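Annex B. Sample input.
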Amino acid sequence: MKTLIIYASKYGTTEDCAFELKNQIKGETKLINMKENSKTVDIDEFDNIIIGCSIYMTRISLEIFNFCEQNLQKLLDKKVGIFLCCGFLEQFQEYLNQNFPKELLENAVISQHFGAEARVSKMKFITKCMFRALTKGNHANYVLLPDNIEAFAAEFK
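Annex B, continued. Sample output.
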């Protein structure tokens, strides 16, 4: 069984989670960061597809959104898992519903949040300002959840 983990990572948190997930999934697994490789990805050779991304201003990345829209019919014939890196965990289900096609969510064997990290040093000035205003300097919600990554891998097997 071949697995593709396709993700979009802006500051590296989602990428770190995708690599950790890859280490926990048995079998042949390939990673593709859509921020670096936005060309068309052929998913035909894979049995399993894991889609991961972060939430910025309530939205997933355009690359992941477009990938899901363009490959929806193929994805419905695959074993699919979805993970999000997000700081507002109580809004996780809302983020899923707003950003992914309903059919894909219904077909997914698992959807999980992996928490978040505030990598402020990598942000551009305007993003830092918006982030600080949004969080009011409280980064307590921005913690990765390694147990969720492990549980995702265990259930996805």
